[in-house]
Amino acid sequence: xxxxxxxxxxxxxxxxxxxxxxxxxxxxxxxxxxxxxxxxxxxxxxxxxxxxxxxxxxxxxxxxxxxxxxxxxxxxxxxxxxxxxxxxxxxxxxxxxxxxxxxxxxxxxxxxxxxxxxxxxxxxxxxxxxxxxxxxxxxxxxxxxxxxxxxxxxxxxxxxxxxxxxxxxxxxxxxxxxxxxxxxxxxxxxxxxxxxxxxxxxxxxxxxxxxxxxxxxxxxxxxxxxxxxxxxxxxxxxxxxxxxxxxxxxxxxxxxxxxxxxxxxxxxxxxxxxxxxxxxxxxxxxxxxxxxxxxxxxxxxxxxxxxxxxxxxxxxxxxxxxxxxxxxxxxxxxxxxxxxxxxxxxxxxxxxxxxxxxxxxxxxxxxxxxxxxxxxxxxxxxxxxxxxxxxxxxxxxxxxxxxxxxxxxxxxxxxxxxxxxxxxxxxxxxxxxxxxxxxxxxxxxxxxxxxxxxxxxxxxxxxxxxxxxxxxxxxxxxxxxxxxxxxxxxxxxxxxxxxxxxxxxxxxxxxxxxxxxxxxxxxxxxxxxx
Length: 530
Known about the structure:
The protein is mainly alpha-helical. The protein has helices at residues 6-17, 21-33, 37-61, 67-76, 80-113, 118-137, 144-168, 182-191, 212-241, 244-249, 254-258, 260-288, 290-300, 315-332, 335-359, 361-364, 368-392, 398-417, 428-438, 440-454, 465-468, 490-500; strands at 459-463, 477-482, 509-514, 527-529.
């Protein structure tokens, strides 16, 4: 099976972030920060970028489909604290689904009916959730290549919108005299923080990544940086092309209205279609992917062996629960309530992940200071978001309190009435991988012997963190085989060797091939296996 390369991992991250958030919550940020809306996006983006450092380090050391929950268990153990954070993560994904479906309903109503009608919006919300619930119940999923196309379509439309918007916008609106105070700018960034949620999905693919120690960090940082750039550009053009009265009136679909000055009704339709495509694909991906993992962990305490990435055999129960909760949330709370609840939920989760990397810094070979700064920024942001809304709009915190309290009560009750507990390892594959790395000295001679039987006079070297940092800091066993044989399909050849060695696809053994003439590419720390 072909491994995921940089571009696939990158598109997963970008697609996860540009999935509807920017279309739905841009208006809220402009109303709060005014001309400083791009600054608000930069502020939220910095928190996301620093947090992606923790995710990159943790995913390289602990490659697991369990992703976020796995890292929390590795750091804090399988206790009620980590179980609660998993339940909160599941609730936050429901909120994300609510945001996506709310945005879909708003844009669909405006696009098909000419303006937003509350009843029509709620009808579109219910229909889109039911549609993708039925599709997922039949086991349908978006392939990696199709998602690549969707991602570049979404980004392409937003960049096209931005480029044309520079021709008609009044960019004096972005000058500091049109900025709100620092507290409002920070809140403007925090209320849309959930628009940056999605980069952590890269972590769930860590076991399938080609050259994970290099590819994962590059994919994380490139994806978040790209999205910061796109958001800043789009928000600047939107501010320059809209009056605040228009933002107030059309805040649920402000981006489509912002395209009218330079593209007319065609621009409104183009952005509307982009929003529908983005939110629809995000609903499908979230229902099938990230929410599925959190639900399974909540129900079983780990990811069961008989449930693969591509076939959710127990879909019906969890899928319907997620769908019903999403419909209730999206049709009951308004956009601002949903945004605050979602942003608050993910800020708490990301604070936990950053703190986890601070604790595991020795094993992940991390700079503790970076993750500590990210943790403190998350905590400060939580305080600012709650404090500002408590002072100015306490009703907007209602949904957040409901989510935080109900998830805690649910977790306590669920643990009391059932025997389900989080397992020592969320992903059984990671447990096998860890055991393999711990005993790598015993298996290397056998691996070397089998390789020497297959090729004519090869040289086998151990490279990477295992030889440079020791097995406590290594999440992978990286080997280089130097041979006279010309290898045409290196991935296929690697799979053949792993089959020969009875190594499963998820085992952390990665084999590269070099010709004799490429031997100088070996790192100085490479260790020859006899």
